[in-house]
């Protein structure tokens, strides 16, 4: 004899619109609790295809269906089943249908599904040579064209998707392909006042910087946008002197010549410093960093930094700077900033930093826990 939950799941396929609407609303409500998620997961073989089919119906049915899928996809086992049944393709198809009214929820679903490597591969369309990268190009275009300055930012969570895909080598290579120009488009969103967008962009740049050893030329092709995105968050809020500004490109100097709002999110500041570190591990990266007066900017930023986690990231970069041939040029600046004990620690630290990066570094995972929809 069928249980109440089994009957509820079967009602999702009812030919009666009122019955179907009532059933999906109940299911959506159940997914809002851990107990409900566990109970429904027992019927996933029937539940997930039924909810997927309802995404194409009217808003009163498709919205609770999408909410349920977002919440269910917090469970990695259920997310894996969704990926196997082709839900990423379904979500992308629905996302760009003119009549779709669940854009935000579909994007949130993609965030959760791309926390799994199989989900990343599916979104990148790795195995389809002709269509490879089409989904990502569409998402990046939507991310960049939509406004991040409104309360209802439908595509703000795309930043989290980009972090997820850039934790894989295939994802990083795709974002760095010069012909696609995806990273150049993404990086310009760093100016957004939307913190979720800004954090997604910072995490994506940081992850892509792990390709600096082999793709530094492609990374530096967008220096005009790269260095402002990496250095302004860690430059402090003081107005720089004319002498300092004269040694910077216009895109940096003009921003540092005026008062500006500081980047208050410590994670963003850490991510940008880690990206700088990865880039200046390469000789050409160090030259580019010095050409924009990078050491001076970090010196000033460190002076005003109060967060211990961010200070350690500054010191990681500083130790690398101190270990290069450019030490003689910058030593006076660093000695005025740091006491002898810190200098000693930094120089000693540079001897083991590469080993530490190998042991604990790597492209960053998703910037947050799996996304949950509000029922």
UniProtKB/TrEMBL annotation:
<feature type="domain" description="Protein HGH1 C-terminal">
    <location>
        <begin position="275"/>
        <end position="321"/>
    </location>
</feature>
<dbReference type="InterPro" id="IPR016024">
    <property type="entry name" value="ARM-type_fold"/>
</dbReference>
<comment type="similarity">
    <text>Belongs to the HGH1 family.</text>
</comment>
<protein>
    <recommendedName>
        <fullName>Protein HGH1 homolog</fullName>
    </recommendedName>
</protein>
<dbReference type="Pfam" id="PF04064">
    <property type="entry name" value="DUF384"/>
</dbReference>
<dbReference type="Pfam" id="PF04063">
    <property type="entry name" value="DUF383"/>
</dbReference>
<dbReference type="InterPro" id="IPR011989">
    <property type="entry name" value="ARM-like"/>
</dbReference>
<dbReference type="InterPro" id="IPR039717">
    <property type="entry name" value="Hgh1"/>
</dbReference>
<dbReference type="InterPro" id="IPR007206">
    <property type="entry name" value="Protein_HGH1_C"/>
</dbReference>
<feature type="domain" description="Protein HGH1 N-terminal">
    <location>
        <begin position="95"/>
        <end position="269"/>
    </location>
</feature>
<dbReference type="InterPro" id="IPR007205">
    <property type="entry name" value="Protein_HGH1_N"/>
</dbReference>
């Amino acid at each position: 004899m069928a249980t109440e939950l089994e009957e509820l799941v079967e009602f999702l396929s009812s030919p009666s619109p009122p019955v179907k609407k009532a059933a999906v609303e109940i299911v959506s409500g159940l997914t809002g609790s851990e107990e409900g998620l566990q109970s429904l997961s027992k019927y996933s073989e029937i539940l997930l295809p039924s909810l997927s089919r309802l995404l194409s119906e009217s808003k009163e049915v498709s919205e609770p269906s999408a909410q349920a899928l977002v919440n269910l996809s917090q469970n990695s086992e259920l997310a894996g089943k969704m990926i196997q049944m082709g839900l990423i393709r379904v979500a992308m198809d629905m996302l760009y249908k003119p009549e779709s009214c669940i854009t935000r929820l579909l994007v949130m679903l993609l965030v959760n599904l791309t926390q799994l490597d199989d989900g990343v591969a599916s979104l990148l369309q790795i195995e389809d040579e002709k269509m490879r990268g089409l989904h990502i190009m569409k998402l990046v275009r939507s991310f960049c064209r939509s406004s991040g300055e409104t309360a209802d930012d439908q595509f703000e969570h795309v930043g989290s998707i980009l972090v997820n895909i850039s934790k894989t080598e295939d994802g990083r290579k795709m974002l760095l392909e010069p012909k696609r120009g995806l990273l150049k488009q993404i990086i310009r969103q760093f100016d957004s006042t939307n913190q979720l967008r800004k954090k997604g962009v910072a995490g994506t740049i940081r992850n892509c910087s792990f390709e600096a050893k082999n793709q530094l030329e492609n990374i530096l092709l967008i220096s005009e946008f790269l260095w402002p995105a990496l250095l302004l968050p860690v430059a402090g809020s003081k107005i720089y002197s004319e002498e300092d500004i004269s040694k910077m490109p216009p895109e940096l100097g003009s921003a540092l010549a005026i008062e500006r709002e500081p980047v208050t999110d410590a994670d963003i500041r850490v991510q940008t410093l880690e990206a700088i570190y990865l880039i200046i591990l390469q000789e050409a990266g160090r030259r580019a960093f010095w050409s924009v007066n990078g050491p001076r900017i970090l010196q000033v930023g460190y002076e005003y930094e109060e967060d211990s986690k961010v200070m350690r990231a500054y010191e990681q970069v500083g130790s690398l700077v101190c270990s290069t041939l450019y030490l003689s040029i910058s030593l006076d600046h660093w000695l005025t900033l740091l006491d002898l004990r810190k200098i000693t620690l930094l120089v000693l630290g540079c001897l083991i930093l590469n080993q530490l990066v190998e042991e604990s570094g790597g492209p960053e995972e998703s910037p947050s826990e799996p996304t949950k929809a509000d029922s």
